[in-house]
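In response to reviewer comment 3 from the previous cycle, which asked for concrete evidence that the modeling workflow produces usable outputs, we include below a single protein chain processed end to end. The sequence was submitted unchanged, and the resulting structure tokens are shown without manual editing.
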Amino acid sequence: MSLYLKGKQSLEELVDPHGWSSTTSSSPTPFEKQASLIPDKNKYEYQSARELVRVLISIIELGSAEEYFLYFHGIIAREFESIERELHAVQLRSAVRFTFENSLHAAILRIMPGPEHEKVGIELYMIIVMKIASIPGHSHESIAGVSATRFQVPGVRSKEGDQGLHPDTRIGRGAWPSLMIEVGYSEGLNLLHLDAEWWLKHSQSRTRFVIITKISRNPFHIRIECWRMVATVGRQTRQTPTWIPRCVQDFNIDAAGVVVSPLGSTELQIPYDCIFDQPSPTAQPVIFSFAELSHFALRLFRLLQ
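The workflow returned the following structure tokens.
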């Protein structure tokens, strides 16, 4: 499979130093910004589902536990079923997450070999569900979980996340998550930031809280960031968005379980209305203390040794 844009202008050259794409008249989408961060050696021209899977296998066979971001040009949405069949045939479907941008005929694939990714997402999801179940008037049946489901902005774009949930009042197979968890390894924090932006910008306010969890080894370390839409402050123009995605809480947890927040967060707090769509007289946020975050991290480190 030939490298995408070989001998052509790279995506990095289409983005000026201020991060604004010269190919569009407005701010680039999270997809475009994420694509600009992927090195040229990881960009390909799409040929077939089988050839795409061959590329993925060659990467996974390197034996690295790190994640990889790949960009494929010339891919259209209807190819997704063929790609899914090929991935299932070689038992790699759970190791891949897709983001499609229809207008660009392009997709970004996140490759996640190894058990770390799945364990981190599931463990965090489970402790959030237990907290929700402890809210008066609620139980574990108050929410429904989502994992590698593809969520679509019809005819425009689509994306798969790692782990998420939504209130049980949202019904149907296409119900969007109100809270999404994205997990990454030692590299690619900027790419995870753009995952958070994607959910918050393109979900039409259906996804209201995104938790990014980045884990590193040797020594173990976890960084947790909580993202949501916040009101724009300062001088505004007609082009200034009223609301922007932003990291509002952050936590660094080292191998000894010591928790530090560069932003000065004193606890991880998920507002009730970021999970549920309807108010409740017993509404209360989901809160994790530093001690609980430390326990979560130390348990993960033990499981991943």
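Helices lie at 30-36, 49-60, 80-89, 116-133, 189-202, 290-304. We consider this sufficient to address the reviewer's concern, and the full set will be provided in the supplementary archive.
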